[in-house]
Design brief:
The structure holds 2 protein chains of 2 kinds. In chain A, helix 1 runs parallel beside helix 4, helix 12 packs antiparallel against helix 13 and helix 12 runs parallel beside helix 14. By secondary structure, chain A is of the alpha/beta class. Chain A starts with 7 loop residues before the first strand and ends in a 15-residue tail after the last helix. In chain A, the strands form 5 sheets. Chain A has a 5-stranded parallel beta sheet with strand order 6-3-2-10-17, with helices on one face. Chain B has a two-stranded antiparallel sheet with strand order 1-4. In chain B, a hairpin with a 6-residue loop joins strand 2 and strand 3. The radius of gyration of chain B is 13 Å and the shape is globular. Classes of the chains: A alpha/beta, B alpha+beta.
């Protein structure tokens, strides 16, 4: 390949935001609100109008900290307990304090939240301890509202460009990113003073039970690009062994969803229609009880709504079938399943990385800063636990504001042209082969190996075999082909998925204890070992390009939690199963 | 290695009578997060080119003429 054959353009900006889903647009909007003269580019692999986890909206806020219902201190305590103590409380507090101002911002932008007769936010209880769930009955229009704000604030948008690697300056500061157009394979090199990563979860890590590569829980575009880019840029990633595993509608693979139906009286039941967990809030302990029920002869597990009144079920249907995952109604129709007549079969999701629901990701502090100067991360891919959609918005706002300040204090770094040339060769390599292995089959094999060897319960001997098999797949990368720009996008995604699979295996082996319920159930180390492992595990790329690890001490708590409170999430199983209602 | 062509049923179906892609409309193609829709060079209408669907429905909801129907992929049904 001659350098002259490669189509490439280089542009400059102050702030580059990668990912136009939830946190990314909010970061761009808040940066422009703070300094309208700041040059901001939002780079998106799909189209900002309908990209990301909230493509079709969201049915509610799962973690609203609204005065009168909860305090930031209560919320920080709840999240600390739900994560077995492994949290950077300051980062959770920054979310909690930003939660209500962001709800009011979104309300002003036109997002409609459930309000009571007197116009106050109508918060519901789903968590074990406090009340944090705020329904959004018309949440289908969130992306439209964000798009309007992006236009109003004159944020420059590049759709259908996939970022592949970050660029760094000679002093180690971030210097921009390399993108490739998913329809033409042309490169766009963006030089920037600061970069915000908002690339979503690693949702194409495990293979769904259906075997359909794109039938994932997460929006399948969110394949782990952000984790891979951060890793290769030298950023530290925290607690990746704390997998995301969710209780979902079987085969459809969408949320069941406890947050929506719980407040209406719906619940998770076993095959006798009995409750077996006290609290349907998604935690590792809850998933462990769910998994035990599936394994223990009382499964499968079901979403039980058929005891509710017709008008309640209609209301639930209206919310569930118009928001977030609206094809759900169509799925039930084909199956002949109706919430009124019988319970709906649920199942356990494939594994993934996602701070939105669990607690792993690119390490960030309370200012959304990663360990690389000038690089920020927000949303599902950043390490703030259980952050959901509102967390992505709040941290988008924090990162946008912080990056704006950083840009004012720094000039545009230079970068090494060799880095760009090397990356262009890596990106285009699959296009130069006329036969070989397709991205589809390499992705299938990688994700099948993830299921076979990495999903909990985690067994050392299995994970080690998994690592060998994944290394064999990696060795096959020199046979990977891409026959058009679209297939090249999938070929690049496969490489991110493989990076995430390697990280998932290495992180799981590093933490030699069990923690977070099912998320990190190490059969060879069944006990929680607070003496040695009450810490963050940090995973990063060493000088030789290998995955390395270190422990990071947990900062002193700013909200103390006493011993009895700490075990609240450990007693989720109902002692004597409740009678069927 | 030589390649084989796999055939697969696709979940997104376009009603060519209603589709106005031949008049320049690109809405469904633009909004698809996974970029699986394209123009059929022969008819000028939109069609699902890649079997990589998240059944998320922006293509159907945003279509100005109601030409798009998203079905649940067969493997999940």
């Amino acid at each position: 390949m001659n350098a002259s054959d490669i189509k490439s353009e280089t542009i400059e900006t102050d702030l580059l935001v990668i990912g136009g889903g939830t946190g990314g647009p909010m970061a761009a909007i808040k940066a422009k609100e703070r300094n309208p003269n700041l040059r901001v580019i939002l780079m998106e692999k799909a189209n900002v109008k309908r990209s990301g986890a909230i493509s079709m909206g969201m049915d509610g806020l799962n973690n609203a900290v609204v005065p009168g219902y909860a305090t930031p201190e209560q919320y920080v305590k709840e999240i600390t307990v739900a994560n077995d103590g492994i949290v950077h409380q300051k980062a959770v507090m920054a979310y909690a304090e930003g939660s209500y101002p962001m709800i009011r911002d979104l309300d002003k932008m036109g997002v409609k939240f459930e309000k009571d007769g007197s116009g106050e936010f109508d918060v519901r209880k789903v968590h074990h301890m406090g009340s944090y769930v705020l329904p959004m009955p018309e949440g289908h229009n969130v992306k439209k509202i964000l798009y309007r704000q992006l236009k109003r604030n004159q944020v420059a948008i590049t759709n259908r460009y996939m970022a592949t690697r970050l660029l760094k300056g000679p002093d180690g500061r971030i210097a921009g990113a390399i993108g490739v157009n998913t329809r033409t394979s042309e490169f766009l090199i963006i030089r920037a003073k600061a970069v915000i990563l908002a690339c979503g979860a690693a949702g194409r890590l495990g293979l769904p039970a259906s075997g359909y590569l794109f039938g994932t829980y997460e929006n399948a575009t969110n394949c782990g690009d952000g984790y891979a880019m951060a890793f290769h840029a030298g950023a530290e990633l925290a607690n990746l062994e704390c997998f995301q595993i969710n209780p979902l509608i079987k085969d459809y693979n969408g949320p069941a969803c406890a947050y929506v139906t719980g407040p209406f009286g719906g619940y998770t039941a076993n095959n006798r229609g009995q409750r077996f967990i006290e609290c349907d809030y998604w935690s590792g302990q809850m998933m462990l009880e769910f998994w035990r029920e599936l394994q223990g002869g009382s499964g499968p597990v079901f979403l039980k709504l058929n005891h509710l009144a017709e008008e309640t079920i209609s209301e639930i249907e209206t919310i569930l079938h118009t928001n977030e995952r609206p094809s759900r109604g169509r799925f039930h129709e084909k199956r002949g399943t109706d919430y009124r007549h019988r319970m709906i079969e649920m199942h356990i999701s494939e594994i993934g990385f996602c701070a939105g629901h669990s607690a792993s990701g690119v390490w960030v502090n309370e200012r959304a800063e990663t360990t690389v100067p000038g690089l920020y991360a927000v949303g599902d891919m950043a390490s703030v636990p259980h952050s959901y959609m509102l967390g992505a918005f709040v941290y988008g706002g924090i990162a946008g504001t912080e990056a704006c300040v950083y840009c004012a204090e720094h000039d545009l770094p230079s970068f090494d042209a060799e880095d760009v040339a090397r990356e262009q060769v890596r990106v285009l390599a699959p296009t130069l082969r006329s036969d070989g292995l397709t991205p589809h089959e390499m992705e299938y094999k990688t994700r099948r190996l993830v299921n076979d060897y990495l999903q909990p319960p985690k067994i050392t001997a299995k994970i080690e075999i998994g690592q060998q098999r994944l290394a064999e797949v990696r060795a096959d990368l020199d046979q990977l082909i891409a026959r058009d720009p679209h297939e090249l996008m999938r070929a690049l995604e496969l490489q991110s998925i493989l990076d995430c699979a390697d990280l998932a295996a290495a992180a799981s082996l590093y933490r030699t204890e069990s923690r977070w319920g099912l998320y990190h159930l190490r059969v060879d180390y069944p006990e929680t070992d607070n003496e040695n492992w009450f810490c963050h595990s940090m995973h990063f790329k060493d000088q030789a390009g290998r995955i390395a690890h270190r422990k990071r001490e947990i900062d002193p708590y700013i909200v103390p939690v006493d011993e009895t409170e700490m075990s609240a999430y450990h007693q989720l199983r109902i002692k004597t199963p409740a009678a069927a209602e | 290695m030589p390649l084989a062509n796999h055939a697969a049923s696709v979940p997104v179906v376009i009603d060519e009578e209603k589709c106005i892609a031949d008049k320049g409309c690109r809405t469904c193609i633009e909004v698809c997060p996974l970029d699986v829709l394209a123009i059929n060079e022969g008819s000028g209408k939109a069609y699902m080119k890649y079997d990589e669907c998240w059944y998320c429905m922006p293509c159907e909801v945003d279509c100005p003429t109601g030409a798009v129907k998203v079905n649940i992929p067969y493997l999940l049904r």
